[in-house]
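Dear H.,

Thanks for agreeing to be a second pair of eyes. The structure we're designing against is below in token form, covering all 500 positions.
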């Protein structure tokens, strides 16, 4: 017993206190020598005048169900053996008393002194609180709580023990009358010296990082600088060469060659052979340059990776992204994300200023199930969307913590172990995870059905508007040039004398 700190039989001698049960002394003994299980058999020796209600209330408060009180009368003058008349115990769920005649004691069978009081808890309401985490606890339509943990509690408490389960969403919800804490807590545990309050799940959980996912494409920068320096040199040489050919060989190139290529300026039908060779070569060059320009625009429109985004924690550390987590002490995560965390004061100030729009520029951290659910909805109500990094930042154990004096620990621990060993737990866990993946894929396929979005055609509108502007500038410049020629040459086409 002392080696494993686990006792299956506890003997308590409370005689000599008369009608007053020594609850203070007994509580001290149980709190300081917690080497027993709640399922251990307690034998309590008390005086005959001991208050039964006070004794049963004490064990009920401490969650001990398997106890048998033995009232002893002082021995008769001619006998050294004390007198045992009636043994008793009580069921706190039904307020039922179990009385046993000590004179009819059968040493071969003592199980009837310890009836299974958890076989039927008669509608006892198990008050539970848990942080919502998929697939263990999540909310479905109609404010109904579902999940793998709810299935476990329903099978155990409702179907097996004939009780009820009520899951609350806030830890500020006051417990039911007569209780100081929740019967069961998930994912929100406090440290206790004794280990027989916690049931740890077999799998681990953790936190993931959400980063903004921008779909805007930077077309204007590429449109204004579409070619390299060498191509710009070729274009400059073409411009200078066409102008020189017009001045050096006016008979072969009567009109501006660039005007004929770009603006389809009129020219005579029969052109000399050198003129046709040069015109054809320039047209072919312009054609390939325009095709390369259009191909680059199409690649910008169809490229699925709009910018270099981090996909892992290591890439996040090497990127320019910052992580802002309002209301959280970032010092706890400084080792996991060195140099990437915005201070708590700065994050709180940004959140008060921008609200949820803060996460359109900064990454944040939340439970992995919340992160994946956030990505399934696509664009949120604020018009931006986020993606999840592949690896978790912080891993932690998922724990079920029962009340300090809960009588359900042994039953829940044994049932969960059998539930897990049978394969039902992992089967349901994998099923819910696959269901979430299918929903994410279906949403992704619906988004992929759209070939182009409105922002994909921004480059086309930019080209059209820029073309109109250039055409307008060229047209106005040509009008000014013609007006200046007429002004200088006069109505007859002769140059006017300049004023002295």
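And this is the sequence the design step returned. I haven't edited it by hand at all.
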């Amino acid at each position: 017993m002392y080696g494993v700190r686990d006792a299956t039989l506890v003997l308590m001698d409370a005689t000599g206190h008369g009608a007053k049960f020594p609850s203070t002394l007994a509580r001290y003994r149980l709190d300081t020598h917690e080497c027993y299980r709640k399922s251990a058999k307690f034998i309590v020796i008390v005086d005959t005048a001991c208050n039964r209600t006070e004794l049963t209330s004490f064990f009920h408060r401490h969650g001990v169900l398997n106890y048998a009180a033995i009232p002893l009368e002082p021995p008769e003058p001619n006998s050294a053996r004390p007198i045992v008349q009636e043994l008793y115990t009580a069921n706190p769920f039904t307020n039922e008393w179990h009385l046993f005649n000590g004179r009819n004691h059968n040493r071969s069978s003592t199980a009837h002194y310890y009836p299974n009081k958890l076989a039927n808890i008669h509608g006892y309401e198990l008050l539970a609180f848990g942080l919502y985490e998929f697939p263990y606890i999540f909310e479905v339509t109609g404010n109904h709580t579902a999940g793998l943990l709810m299935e476990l509690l329903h099978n155990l408490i409702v179907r097996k023990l004939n009780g009820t389960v009520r899951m609350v969403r806030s830890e500020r919800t006051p417990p039911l009358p007569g209780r100081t804490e929740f019967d069961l807590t998930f994912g929100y545990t406090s440290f206790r010296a004794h280990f027989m309050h916690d049931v740890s799940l077999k799998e681990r959980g953790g936190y993931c990082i959400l980063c903004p996912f921008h779909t805007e494409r930077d077309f204007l920068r590429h449109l204004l600088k579409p070619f390299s320096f060498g191509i710009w040199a070729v274009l400059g040489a073409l411009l200078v060469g066409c102008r020189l050919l017009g001045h050096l060989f006016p008979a072969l190139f009567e009109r501006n060659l660039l005007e004929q290529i770009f603006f389809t300026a009129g020219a005579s039908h029969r052109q000399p052979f050198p003129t046709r060779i040069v015109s054809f070569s320039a047209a072919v060059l312009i054609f390939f340059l325009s095709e390369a320009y259009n191909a680059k625009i199409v690649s910008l429109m169809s490229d699925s990776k709009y910018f270099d985004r981090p996909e892992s924690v290591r890439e996040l550390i090497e990127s320019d992204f910052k992580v802002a987590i309002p209301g959280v002490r970032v010092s706890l995560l400084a080792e996991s994300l060195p140099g990437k965390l915005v201070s708590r004061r700065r994050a709180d100030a940004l959140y008060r200023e921008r609200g949820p729009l803060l996460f359109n520029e900064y990454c944040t951290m939340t439970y992995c199930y919340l992160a994946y659910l956030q990505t399934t909805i696509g664009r949120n109500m604020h018009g931006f969307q986020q993606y999840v990094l592949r690896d978790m930042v912080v891993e932690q154990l998922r724990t079920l913590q029962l009340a300090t004096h809960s009588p359900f620990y042994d039953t829940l621990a044994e049932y969960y172990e059998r539930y897990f060993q049978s394969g039902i737990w992992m089967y349901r866990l994998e099923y819910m995870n696959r269901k979430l993946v299918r929903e994410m894929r279906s949403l992704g396929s619906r988004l992929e059905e759209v070939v182009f979005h409105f922002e994909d055609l921004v480059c086309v509108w930019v080209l059209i508007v820029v073309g109109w502007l250039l055409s307008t500038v060229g047209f106005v410049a040509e009008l000014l040039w013609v007006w200046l020629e007429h002004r200088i040459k006069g109505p007859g086409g002769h140059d006017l004398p300049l004023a002295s």
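Two observations from my side: DSSP finds 13 helices and 15 strands in the chain. The CA atoms of residues 136 and 149 lie 5 Å apart.

Warmly,
E.
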